[in-house]
Design a protein that fits this description.
alpha/beta, 5 strands
């Protein structure tokens, strides 16, 4: 099962029920919701906080500058004029997922816009199996190690 983050943007009139319904409605079948993500200016909205509690997940928040640095397939000039970035839902999902792949593009359901990105798995411990060291790498008793 894929672990996913849902990025969202929403109007000030959005309710926690609308947010929860939008999130549940966009989740791919079999996916596990890891968290929600949005713009920092929206992170303290009571509807979002309530929705996160209902869904039992945390909320990741990103500045407009961080969101604006992410290339997205569906930028919006209207959103850019309103909050200083051309994407909230898609960019926030991608950032929260560790620059994961956008698996569901932005979808609007009235007061809420959502997008889904797959979480990037953590790097495995140690060196990857393909790591090779040059043959000239030699450690002897006289070498000083830092």
């Amino acid at each position: 099962m894929a672990e996913v983050y849902v990025g969202l943007g929403f109007t000030t009139s959005a309710t926690s029920t609308e947010i929860v319904d939008a999130v549940r409605g966009i989740l791919p079948q079999g996916a596990t919701l890891v968290g929600l993500a949005t713009a920092a200016v929206k992170a303290s909205a009571p509807a979002l906080i309530d929705a996160a509690q209902i869904l039992s997940v945390d909320v990741a928040a990103f500045t407009s500058e961080e969101l604006a640095a992410v290339h997205v397939p569906s930028p919006s000039t209207r959103v850019e004029q309103a909050v200083g970035t051309a994407s909230v839902a898609e960019a926030a999902a991608i950032l929260a997922a560790g620059h994961g792949q956008l698996t569901v593009g932005k979808t609007s359901t009235g007061a809420v816009t959502v997008a889904v990105a797959s979480k990037v798995p953590p790097a495995s411990a140690g060196f990857p199996a393909s790591t090779a060291f040059p043959a000239s790498t030699k450690i002897d008793d006289e070498m000083e190690c830092e």
